[in-house]
Each structure stands twice: as C-alpha cells, then as structure tokens.
Specification:
There is one protein chain. The chain has one domain: Immunoglobulin-like (Sandwich). A five-stranded antiparallel β-sheet has the order 1-6-5-8-9, with no helix packed on it. By secondary structure, it is mostly beta strands. 0% of the residues lie in helices and 44% in strands. The protein is globular and about 35 Å long. A hairpin with a 5-residue loop joins β5 and β6 (47-52).
Length: 97
C-alpha cells in the first residue's frame, strides 16, 4: 500500500519540503498492526498530518514543514476499539536525502 494515498496534511502554513520525515512502527502483542496515525504539534495541539500504518505496523509521513526537535507527538488509534491508543511523545522528524 502506498502511504501517500492516505496522507492528509492539514494547517500547512509554509511551503513544505520533501526532506522532513516522520516514521515509526506500531505493534500490538509484538505483531505489526494497521492503525490510524495522527501527528500533532505540542504547542497548540493542532493536527500536522495523518496516515495509516501498513499491515506490518510501519508508517511514514513525508512532505511536511520542518518543526523544532521534540515538538510533536503521534497517536495511533485502533478504530476497532479492541486496543487502547498508543502515543509517542516528544517526537522529532528525520531528514531524508
């Protein structure tokens, strides 16, 4: 599945670059899981972007503005309601080549 099909960028104020990347892996009981991942800006809780993880739990969001180190948090929601949401706090972007 191409993650760009599921990428939603909201509240973009500046011209985004393709160098800034957020990514991770979501597991439940040590198995990759498909989840809706939403990334927020810590300072005002605004949504930066959202996507869905692959069946192996991996997810990636690129083409976002640059944000300060540790200024984001991500929540992975289980839309079925079986598992509680998972949160990653103080998230930083990486830079791709």
């Amino acid at each position: 599945m191409d993650l760009s099909e599921h990428l939603i960028i909201e509240g973009v104020e500046a011209e985004p670059t393709r160098r800034h990347v957020l990514d991770g892996i979501i597991k439940e009981n040590d198995v990759g899981a498909v989840r809706r991942v939403v990334v927020f800006l810590r300072s005002d809780m605004s949504v930066v972007a959202s996507t869905f993880s692959h069946s192996d739990g991996t997810w990636e969001i690129s083409n976002t503005n640059e944000y300060p180190v540790d200024s984001l948090y991500a929540i992975a929601f289980d839309d079925s309601g079986i598992f509680n949401a998972r949160i990653a706090d103080f998230v930083s972007q990486t830079t791709s080549s």
